[in-house]
Amino acid sequence: MKTYIVGNWKLNFNVGESSIYLHKLQKNLPNYRDIEVVVAPSLVALQPLSLQIDRHKMKLAAQNAFYRDYGAFTGEVSFAQLKGLVDYVIIGHSERRHIFGEDDKMVGKKVAAALRNKLTPILCIGETESERAFGETADVIRDQLLSGLRDVSEEEIDEVLIAYEPVWAISTTGHAKLASPDEVAEIVKLIRGTLADLYGEKTAEKIGVLFGGSVKPSNAGAYLTVPGINGLLVGGASLILNEFTDIIDVAKRVKS
Ligand code: PGA
């Protein structure tokens, strides 16, 4: 399986800044066959960047989309409209869930809509600090997986990526703590076990599982060597070109 390094730019960079960043990033990026480099710029930058991007080197992701293809949904953008611009869509990021009130049901519909439109969903799951403190982590992870994948068939599941992002480890939460590789390993085991229950052992092995939460060049290697991890979802560090390329370098070293 490839290693996925996904940069989530969140609400940062205007169109010009995004274009300059992309130019610099892909200029020095080798054409890695076994590493899939993906960036998720702001929605307004997707169209121009889709013309600029060298798809042999990297791919684009959207940070969100709405599950209906068209209709009276003021302010929304559909997966159908993103087709041709991006290859991936981040779905159910904790900021969508906690700031914008997206619930598990909506996340499930979005995953289905992505697949219907032949885009790869990156389904984000993860417990909050208080859920962990109350011993609810396993239930939260299982519930988020079950509802996120509710409409995903066995034929479709290997098109889905899962990103485990403990909310308490995301750098912008203010008091973020680093997740230890052991803590990550425990949850990845649970995720893989749940996927095996849903789709069978063999199919589950083909599903990519990413980790995200304060990933930096200095800790990327430790997370990438957690058993069952196939990549990283990087927020803050993906905004700094050197840090992002260093993380890609680490992935390359771990792979070889
Ligand atoms: P972070 O963000 O790397 O800044 O912690 C990760 C994310 O929110 O996807």
List keywords for this structure.
single chain; alpha/beta; TIM Barrel; 256 residues
Task: Report on this structure.
The protein is α/β, with parallel strands linked by helices and 256 residues long. It has a single domain (3-255), classed as Aldolase class I (TIM Barrel). It is 43% helix and 16% strand. The chain contains 11 helices and 8 strands. It has helices spanning 15-28, 43-52, 79-82, 94-99, 104-116, 129-133, 137-148, 181-199, 201-205, 217-224, 241-255, and strands spanning 3-8, 35-40, 58-62, 88-91, 120-125, 161-164, 208-212, 231-234. It has an 8-stranded parallel β-barrel with strand order 1-2-3-4-5-6-7-8, surrounded by 6 helices. Strand 7 (208-212), helix 10 (217-224) and strand 8 form a beta-alpha-beta unit. The radius of gyration is 17 Å and the shape is globular. It starts with a strand and ends with a helix. Bound molecules: 2-phosphoglycolic acid (PGA). Residues 8, 165, 170-172, 212-215, 233-237 line the site of 2-phosphoglycolic acid.
